[in-house]
Amino acid sequence: MLTDLRFALRLLVKSPGLTVAAVCALGFGIGLSTAVFNVFSAMLLRPFPYIADERSLVFLNSQRLGHPDSFYELSLPDFYDLRQDSKTLEGFTTTVDRTMIFTDGKNPPIRALGADISVEGFAMLGTSPLRGRVFDAADAKPGAPQVALIGYGLWHRLYGGRDDTIGRTVPINGRPHTIIGVMPKGFAFPDNHEMWTPLTTIPTKEGERGSHSFPGWARLRPGVSLDEACTEAATLAARLARQYPSTNDGKTLVVRPAREEATHDSALLMQLMLGAALTVLLIACANVANLLLARAAARTHEIAIRVAVGASRWQIIRQIMTESLVLGLLGGAFGLLVAAWSENLLFSAVPHEEIPFWMNFGFDWRVFTFTAAAAILSPLVFGFFPALQASRSAATALREGSRTATAGRRTLFLRHALVVTQVALSAVLLITAGLFIRSFLKLATTPPGYDRAGVITFRVGLPPSQYTDKDQIRRFFEQLDPALAALPGVQVAGSTSMLPGKSDNRNVFLIEGRPEPVSMQTADMATTHTVSPGYLAAMRIPLLRGRTFSPDDTRDKPLVVLVDQQFADRLFPGADPVGQRVSLGLSDGYDKEPRKWAQIIGIVGNVPQHLDRPYDLGSLYFAASQSDANFVNYALRVTGDPATYGKAITQAVLSVQSDIPIYNLHTMEYLHAAAYWKQRFFSQVFSAFGLGALFLAALGVYGVMSYAVVQRTAEIGVRMALGASESQILRLVARQGAWLIALGLTLGLLTALGVTRLLAGLLYRVSPSDPPTYFAFTFLLAVTGLLACVLPVRRATRIAPMAALRTE
């Protein structure tokens, strides 16, 4: 074996061109595959950090009956009932997001994303603190001293990682909290949180069953299967639907693995990405196989002599496979460098806040095992057939006695089959990339309904645990609005409860004079916003009919509301909704307050919350001056670069309330891009795969045609000597390559038609069988392939006929 290895290394050093070409092709394929596998592994294979026995961890959802993809969060009463009655689940945990503001009177206020969490939560997860302790039952009792756990990063930012942090009392949202523990580095359950406080048992009213804002986690009890837990949850949901038909009829409760809940939006795309990367690796292997076939043909006499002096066929195969293995290992080493570079490139396109805390992208044993497997198994793909073919043709070469190594039919068939495979796989990748590109371009050019240029946004508010006086909250925003509007360069400022591209706040509503639905599941729904007049002007959302909000729309005046065109078309087809009245919620028998009716005063343009989802409900815009909210988002239309206004905005807020920080400071351009980063990201990734496949396929065609021209150089010389024109020679030789490309394209198109059906739910306003995409990218591949055919033939036609004849 060592002899074979030394001989293989000498041969590779003697053929630096072939060696470099093979290692680069393999490194490109293995590197891309490794980079994608690393993301795939982080998302779907690696265990959640700091969480024990992930297999028994489940997530609890509500779901509309008959709508298998309509998952949404639990209502708190449903959560309590499930916790009380379940025999298959244990360790029930829920969380409530909180804004945590640290103020010590000396430094500027600091805001952290926190959560109230059930005291059972950390024990259920199996997570231990790095310092101190976690919550116990006494911490959640009403009136108990207020305590908090902080994350590793916050511990270092605020206290430099000092041990005396434990036991320190700090003001959080204006109230003293004792820090009792620090969580390990990287732990940020449930969604990049940095601080946790105990969730006190909340008394609930039955009317709250219609409010779904509580995520739920639990564990399967020992010996209980997921199916058993699902059956029990569905049975309990049916009982609740009979007891509370106005809120629970038409919905069920669903138990899902926690991993499935965490990855359901991206799992299919990651699987497709890994498949695309492995396809590029296969194309690279086909290229190297063609290179080795060409070299094996050139070494036919050498191998034949070795056979004649006693080498067995197995020894020949072993020698050539050793060369292939060395190429594979070199390609794997180069692939690790490509993978490291690709990782940085991949994640530069992903907003940091979109990466969940449990995803770790460091190269671990899984990644190195994958790379090693690719480096070792790839030679079996690209090296076996050249080795087999070379050992077969050795005896034939001695009998022929020709100085020129001529490829037999079997070798030619194999080389042509490899080229056809490369073209077919490249066609699939290019068409897939084209569909994603078309989808993203359609999304990028879809009017969002507002003008995002020149707008800066941020979020600010008064924590409800600290500020309970509604008059104080109103005064804060009444003073802040003119302070922001007066900043130099600010044209108009306004607030909203929800910016476009963020979470979708849907509510049921009733139109006055129409029958009230019997349950929430049969009621009409719309996206609801609370906005100030300045917000509509700042975002340049057009008023189409009626009037917008005015200073006279105060709390002591009748409620008013704006609707968008989609709402008007859906609920008032052919009629004018202005003057009609709507009310949120249902009369469920538990709420004793009279209905609050809001009169429609105008119609504004459509602004879908998410451009990539069907916009079929419409929106209701209520006046901020008639509502109460602790937190709002501001949008300011400014002159010049919006990104330069952060410091001035911060000072304006602190001048109104010195202990309140702003956060989520972004331009609207950034928020719009961040909302659709997945579409852009995957279109870029698949484009890179497609272009890489196109390049490798073109190299494959070029290599085959170059070899064919070398074999036919003498024939070309004879034809040219007899008067054949250059165009005739081009057609004669290029016809062979054209047939290979045509066959590859045919197979690729048929395969693409089947594969791209998987993309149906991932594309925006583009069919998986979109004709322009298929035509454009098939044409691109055909032209590239034909150019790869023509170039070596043109080079051969420039050789003098006598020089060509002397090659024999």
Structural descriptors:
11-stranded mixed sheet, 808 residues, 22 strands, alpha+beta, single chain
Structural class: alpha+beta
Distance between the termini: 38 Å
Q: Calculate the mean pLDDT score and round it.
A: 86
Tertiary shape: elongated
Helix content: 40-55%
Low-pLDDT runs = 401-407
β-strand number: 22
How many helices?
23
Strand content: 15-25%
Describe this structure in words.
This protein is α+β, with helices and mostly antiparallel strands and 808 residues long. It is 49% helix and 16% strand. The strands form three sheets. Strands 1, 2, 3, 4, 5, 6, 7, 8, 9, 10 and 11 form an eleven-stranded mixed sheet that branches. The protein has a six-stranded mixed barrel with strand order 14-15-20-17-19-18. Helix 21 packs antiparallel against helix 22. The longest helix has 36 residues, at 365-400. The radius of gyration is 34 Å and the shape is elongated. Mean pLDDT is 86; it is low at 401-407.
Q: Quick gist of this model?
A:
The protein is 49% helix and 16% strand. The protein is built from 23 helices and 22 strands.
